[in-house]
Amino acid sequence: MGSVEERLLLPPPPARSGDAGAGGAKRGKWEKTYLDVLGVCCSAEVALVERLLKPIDGVRAVTVVVPSRTVIVEHDLAAVSQSHIGYIAVRTTALADNSTVARMQRLVEAAQNSRSKTQRLVDSCAKYYTPAVVAVAAGVALVPLLLGPRGAQDPKRWFQLALVLLVSACPCALVLSTPVATFCALLRAARMGVLIKGGDVLESLGEIRVAAFDKTGTITKGEFSVHGFHVVGDKVGMSQLLYWVSSIESKSSHPMATALVEYAQSKSIQPEPTSVTEFRIYPGEGISGAINGRQIFIGNTRIMARSSCYAAGAGPEMEGQQGASIGHVIVDGDHVAAFSLSDDCRTGAAEAIRELRSMGIRSVMLTGDSKAAASRAQRQLGGALEEVHSELLPADKVALVGDLKARAGPTLMVGDGMNDAPALATADVGVAMGLSGSAAAMETSHATLMSSDVLRVPAAVRLGRRARATVAANVIASVGAKAAVLALAAAWRPALWVAVLADVGTCLLVVLHSMLLLWDPAGAGWRRRGGGGDPEACRATARSLAMRSQLAEASNGAAGTAQGRRPGGGTKAGCHCCRETSEPSEHDHTAVVVDIPAPSAGAERPGVVAPTAAIGCCSSSAREACAAPTTVTTVNSAPRGCCGGIGEGDSRENARTSCCTDARDSPKKAGKQCNARCCSGGKQDTLKSQAQDTISTLK
Ligand SMILES: Nc1ncnc2c1ncn2[C@@H]1O[C@H](COP(=O)(O)OP(=O)(O)OP(=O)(O)O)[C@@H](O)[C@H]1O
Ligand SMILES: [Zn+2]
């Protein structure tokens, strides 16, 4: 595709080398090369560096000097050159503009540029207010002239009254009352890990009456385990089937896909995503792809209908799998296998729902998963949800959100997947599960959680309420103080100094009162919470180094061996983002089919991205495709590579940066998805802190 930029970067030679004489010493044919490895920050990484370099043919010894961040490699120059020694090949599949950090920056800019409803009202009134006040003050000053000789007895008093009126009418405090409070609340939200796209959203947050939650990846961890995988009939053997299923699933970023790929690997079957063509995602249904000349569909009962397969049921083996999600595999129209999997609720999900209830907010689940899986989650939550809706397509979620808005009031929707994006746009406040969610969800939503902590949802609503109360108090204080001064002046005697004091005083009061929003009642005081720290930096470097090792393997693998082996499979072949670093096949295209609702009038709030972005298409070509005025959009993407391709075509796979967050959140995932961010030079490893830096522009 035209928008995809592909480069092979051979890095410059090492900073210092033995044969140049600068600190190097030749020993026969052995050469010492000194490499400045700036990412080394602790001795824990020594083993990683050694593991990376020692296996290279011709390398005799590797020494890591941690304090100076230098790696000394002793190698045979004839067997391995300096440039061959952790060289780096980078294939970019999207521009930096499409990265998560860049998107965050755009969100922050949008938030800064948007004004809340109250602020817009105050600003529009100010247009007429100032000339009106000047006219009234002039009239008061001229009263003695109008009253003739009787009124002229006390012209000084009238003039002073006019001055008091002018000063008291100065709307500084009133004008400050909303933006300062909004600004402080947005900053507070950013500090607690919620990126809110503007004052309007903040106001809406304070009005929420219902919260709708997606299940997989929002209420649950999105870490499935496979309970059973059963072949139906005898048309295909288990090994062959697992090879096909895992190869196709390798191209999907749905949490179930990860579990199925791992399951195949646990049976010593290595998926081969490069053999898959015609890969397609059907949100709410499953996926399909062609491999070895077979057309394969994997998903729920809906996908069976799509593949024209009408099997009677999942089979006796699947009976009794209480609360599990049942999946099916259809090969060339035949139902050949059924599997069951399940995942568990996130820590804090039940607490978040209980907190919302204590605030008078009803909680509802909207899930594309099966009824059994939805009930299981409800049981784990102790029945906290007031309504559970399952087996929903993206359009069903939109309809239900609309219904909730109509019957229960302002509705908040929290979701992570591409299938949630239309519903997020429809809700009064759509909240995306930030880094673990899809780009589609993040761009369509009105607020983004910068972590997987759903407890931040009630915290954000509480902040919205506090912000509304603060604005109301500010307005009352600023108007009330001025009214009191005027009343005093009219009833007793006009004192200019009182008017000036009241004017400056209320300004100060409004600002200080707004700043109270920065206070964290939960205990962190004025300080920001969280923060990276050295251990995080170490993990980041470790991931970056591990990625280099995978890249090296991938490039070796591309030389043409290892049938059925994924690049990077030598370490841990679970990384969705990096597995396709080898030469892509020309058939390696992805299609995403998703229904996007027509924009509603309510979607015009500032900072809300138009629904064309809802499918997470970030490359310019994809955007063009999205911009087509149709409700069903199909985007064919160029072959995908690393996370740089966020939102590129297969937005689920590329955009879901779960590898980034979840690697941090979950030790289980850290191993298998560790490398998603390394693709952007390790920078996204510290994405959270970078995003917070971006947010600091709000200051
Ligand atoms: N890659 C996949 N492999 C197998 N089945 C899939 C895949 N993607 C989707 N499905 C099937 O489609 C169903 C609906 O998927 P969808 O993404 O809409 O919702 P979900 O992720 O299961 O739940 P939620 O809406 O709560 O996030 C899944 O429960 C699963 O049965
Ligand atoms: Zn989900």
From TrEMBL:
<feature type="domain" description="HMA">
    <location>
        <begin position="31"/>
        <end position="97"/>
    </location>
</feature>
<dbReference type="InterPro" id="IPR036412">
    <property type="entry name" value="HAD-like_sf"/>
</dbReference>
<dbReference type="GO" id="GO:0016463">
    <property type="term" value="F:P-type zinc transporter activity"/>
</dbReference>
<keyword id="KW-0472">Membrane</keyword>
<dbReference type="GO" id="GO:0005524">
    <property type="term" value="F:ATP binding"/>
</dbReference>
<dbReference type="InterPro" id="IPR023299">
    <property type="entry name" value="ATPase_P-typ_cyto_dom_N"/>
</dbReference>
<keyword id="KW-0547">Nucleotide-binding</keyword>
<dbReference type="InterPro" id="IPR006121">
    <property type="entry name" value="HMA_dom"/>
</dbReference>
<comment type="similarity">
    <text>Belongs to the cation transport ATPase (P-type) (TC 3.A.3) family. Type IB subfamily.</text>
</comment>
<protein>
    <recommendedName>
        <fullName>P-type Zn(2+) transporter</fullName>
        <ecNumber>7.2.2.12</ecNumber>
    </recommendedName>
</protein>
<dbReference type="InterPro" id="IPR027256">
    <property type="entry name" value="P-typ_ATPase_IB"/>
</dbReference>
<keyword id="KW-1278">Translocase</keyword>
<dbReference type="InterPro" id="IPR001757">
    <property type="entry name" value="P_typ_ATPase"/>
</dbReference>
<keyword id="KW-1133">Transmembrane helix</keyword>
<dbReference type="InterPro" id="IPR018303">
    <property type="entry name" value="ATPase_P-typ_P_site"/>
</dbReference>
<keyword id="KW-0479">Metal-binding</keyword>
<feature type="transmembrane region" description="Helical">
    <location>
        <begin position="496"/>
        <end position="519"/>
    </location>
</feature>
<dbReference type="InterPro" id="IPR051014">
    <property type="entry name" value="Cation_Transport_ATPase_IB"/>
</dbReference>
<dbReference type="GO" id="GO:0016020">
    <property type="term" value="C:membrane"/>
</dbReference>
<feature type="region of interest" description="Disordered">
    <location>
        <begin position="650"/>
        <end position="699"/>
    </location>
</feature>
<dbReference type="GO" id="GO:0046872">
    <property type="term" value="F:metal ion binding"/>
</dbReference>
<feature type="transmembrane region" description="Helical">
    <location>
        <begin position="159"/>
        <end position="187"/>
    </location>
</feature>
<dbReference type="Pfam" id="PF00702">
    <property type="entry name" value="Hydrolase"/>
</dbReference>
<feature type="transmembrane region" description="Helical">
    <location>
        <begin position="128"/>
        <end position="147"/>
    </location>
</feature>
<keyword id="KW-0067">ATP-binding</keyword>
<dbReference type="InterPro" id="IPR023214">
    <property type="entry name" value="HAD_sf"/>
</dbReference>
<feature type="region of interest" description="Disordered">
    <location>
        <begin position="1"/>
        <end position="26"/>
    </location>
</feature>
<feature type="transmembrane region" description="Helical">
    <location>
        <begin position="471"/>
        <end position="490"/>
    </location>
</feature>
<dbReference type="InterPro" id="IPR044492">
    <property type="entry name" value="P_typ_ATPase_HD_dom"/>
</dbReference>
<feature type="compositionally biased region" description="Polar residues">
    <location>
        <begin position="687"/>
        <end position="699"/>
    </location>
</feature>
<keyword id="KW-0812">Transmembrane</keyword>
<dbReference type="InterPro" id="IPR036163">
    <property type="entry name" value="HMA_dom_sf"/>
</dbReference>
<dbReference type="InterPro" id="IPR023298">
    <property type="entry name" value="ATPase_P-typ_TM_dom_sf"/>
</dbReference>
<dbReference type="GO" id="GO:0016887">
    <property type="term" value="F:ATP hydrolysis activity"/>
</dbReference>
